[in-house]
Amino acid sequence: MEARTTVVVVTWRGRAHVGACLDALAAQTRPHRTVVLDNASDDGTSALLAAHPSAPSTIRLDHNAGYAGGLAAALPAVDTEYVAWLNDDAAPSADWLAALEDALDAEPRAGAASAGLHRPDGSVQSIGVRLTPLGYGMDVTEGEIFGFCGGAALLRTAALADAGGVPGDFFCYYEDTDTSWRLRLRGWTVLSVPAARVTHLHGASSKPGSRSFHRWNERNRLLVLLRCAPLAVAVREIARFAAITAVLPLRRSAPAAANFDVRLRWGVLTEVAARLPGVVGRRRAISRRCAIGRTAVWRQAHGGGQASVSGG
User: Fold this and answer.
1) How far is CA 197 from the centre of its chain?
2) Is residue 306 pLDDT above 60, yes or no?
3) Smallest Cα–Cα separation from 223: which of 273, 183, 165?
4) Which pTM was predicted?
5) Which residues contact residue 211 at a Cβ distance below 8 angstroms, ignoring those fewer than 6 apart?
6) Residue 15, SS3?
7) How many CA atoms lie within 13 A of 189 on its CB side?
8) What is the number of alpha carbons within 13 Å of residue 178 lying toward its C-beta?
9) By C-alpha distance, which of 177, 180, 192, 191 is closest to 116?
10) Of residues 195, 233, 10, the one with CA closest to residue 115
11) In 3-state terms, what secondary structure has residue 201?
């Protein structure tokens, strides 16, 4: 059987866990290509990749482009019908790819399928992403989804190109929400396939809760809204973020989380402002390609009934 999927694994200093990921891919019941994008790892990852018995194709960058940048850099090497995104700290079950391919085969208008991610203790981490009223992308463990979780998902390669590819300049986080949103604006749907089971260490490289984590999350949420949301929603949320930032120094106490650090928040606003000309151009390009209006997709995301669930 000919391979229909290219699995893209983006790694950075992944020597401690990428081997288990490749072992699990080698055990898949469906043929596939594996491409590993190495973000200039300096911990021996390159030697591990070269020695792994599955002999994955490897692309090595001379700098760390992040998860989003790594995906974007690997896409030119993809010539298969489907492309899978897989974290380097994720180990899929043997029938993971088969379940995802079957789900997309059964739904021709589905542009992507989100796997069922589980923590090492077996608890469910994510079956996809929902969109909150404030425009945050949040993992869900049951029910309907708005978008796929980029830690383990399968996309129709033509649909990804149709939606405009991967936002490589995001570096890390929200590249999945942004891509899902653009797929929906083009008229594609997104499936949840909990039966496509993956064990995920989560954050082995990016350290959830760190200052960098919160910076990328807050910045990229605002960028996604500027690119994809109704204009009134994007303006409202940027104004809300700026207003909260402005009043934080006046409060006697503030939450301890790093995303309430005033310097971090002003830094986020500065970054968003610096990118604004490019984001406006990208928004216009997305608007020209919309098959469904921005307001309609926003209402779908908060009204339910827009996503299908396949599998067990």
Assistant:
1) 17
2) no
3) 273
4) 0.94
5) 258, 261, 264
6) coil
7) 18
8) 27
9) 192
10) 195
11) coil
Cα gap 84→303, rounded to integer Å: 29
Where are the domain boundaries for CATH 3.90.550.10 in the chain? 5-200
Question: How many CB atoms are located within 10 Å of the residue 218 CB?
Answer: 23
Indicate if the pLDDT at residue 305 is higher than 50: no
Neighbours of 73 (CB within 10 A): 18
Cα–Cα distance measured from residue 15 to residue 47, given in angstroms and rounded to the nearest whole number: 9
Per-residue confidence (pLDDT) for residue 208, from 0 to 100: 72
Distance between CA 201 and CA 37 in Å, rounded? 19
Q: What is the per-residue DSSP string for 31-82?
A: --EEEEEE----SSHHHHHHH-TT--EEEE-SS--HHHHHHHHHGGG--SSE
| Ramachandran angles phi, psi of 7, nearest 5° | -95, 120
Residue found under tokens 């006046």: 250
- Beta-strand runs (E) in 181-259: 189-200
- Please write the tens of the pLDDT for every residue from 60-97: 999 999 999 999 999 999 999 999 999 999 999 999 99
Cα distances (angstroms) measured from residue 170 to each of 67, 143, 154, 217, 279: 9, 28, 20, 10, 12
Q: Give the model's pLDDT for residue 206.
A: 59
The percent of the chain in helix, strand and coil, each rounded to the nearest 5, is: 45, 20, 35
Say if residues 111 and 190 touch (Cβ distance below 8 Å). Answer: yes
What is the per-residue burial (b if ≥16 Cβ within 10 Å, else e) of 113-132? bbbbbbeeeeeebbbbbbbe
Residues 294 and 270: their CA atoms lie apart, in Å, by 26
* The domain defined by 5-200 carries CATH number 3.40.190.10: no
140, two tokens: 């869900």
